[in-house]
Specification:
11% strand, 150 residues, DNA-binding, mainly alpha, homodimer
DNA sequence: ACTTTTTTGTTGCAATTGCAATAATAATAG
DNA sequence: CTATTATTATTGCAATTGCAACAAAAAAGT
């Protein structure tokens, strides 16, 4: 049943591709939207958690965040209680583009789920959450350098 | 319900990341496995279809295929009936690594679907197929330069 | 027949991506 | 309390990725 994972891959790449093209209108380059939406939604999140959430390499997130900061869309604030971390916040300018990201997301959602009943959507979501939990555990292990055996 | 698409994104990135790390063992660099498995499974497929299947830019597929050829894992054959296309075939060497890709795929599958019943798996697959069809239509439009409206 | 459009392939950039390696602080252990 | 480990962030490469722009052949229109 390996086709399930292929379907997921296809859907993810297609949607990502669409988003990247559409967000150029808001001066966002490839991938940036992923980080910006999450920072808008979870003000104060740190880079490390962001990478973990998105499932991307730590250094990739570092660079994406760096660029968002340079563009003035987000801000890094040092924490007096913990000098190791930098909390991330969307600036006013960042918050201005957020509604656009939301609208695009809602639309993609609508398109993707067209023809599915509310119940089917609920089922799909619940199943995917479980799959994600399964996969996420392995991802963290492998990222740490541990080897899966099969 | 936009969380569905996020779950899909997370799962896809996590699995892709794992695969990329594991396939280094077989001298494959990032992304190459996507193309190689499909060429092994569909001998004679052309680049354009490959990109369409995988949902990746045409030029990205071009470069991936180019590299696979340079590494001697696949072969491009010109078609006497159609001088525009080049059919792709795995070489012996390419076919040798294929079983490894398969085993990895089966294992990822097992991990991802752990705890799901056969029926749930069936349901998930069927729902995802529908979602993919929905998304794929939009992707092709947007790739052609057409604008979605919302 | 021939003109226009679509398909298929390639290359030049400019950018993201991620592994390795480094650093610094915080948390844990002995 | 100090030594070791884990967390968080950064930078230097080397590679993939994709948009633009081109080319050539095939397919569709007129």
């Amino acid at each position: 049943m390996k086709e399930i994972l292929r379907e997921i891959g296809m859907i993810a790449r297609a949607l990502d591709s669409i988003s990247n093209i559409e967000f150029k209108e808001v001066e966002l380059t490839r991938g940036q939207y992923l980080y910006l939406v999450r920072i808008c939604e979870q003000p104060g999140i740190i880079q490390e958690k962001l990478a973990e959430m998105i499932k991307v390499d730590r250094t990739t997130a570092a660079r994406a965040v760096q660029k968002l900061e340079l563009q003035g869309l987000i801000e890094k604030r040092s924490d007096p209680d913990n000098r190791k971390i930098k909390k991330l916040f969307a600036t006013e300018q960042g918050m201005e583009v957020y509604p656009f990201l939301q609208r695009e997301g809602v639309h993609s959602d609508k398109v993707a789920l067209r023809g599915l009943s509310d119940e089917e959507i609920e089922t799909l979501y619940s199943l995917l959450t479980r799959v994600r939990h399964n996969v996420e555990a392995d991802w963290e292990e492998v990222k740490k350098g541990n080897k899966r055996q099969y």
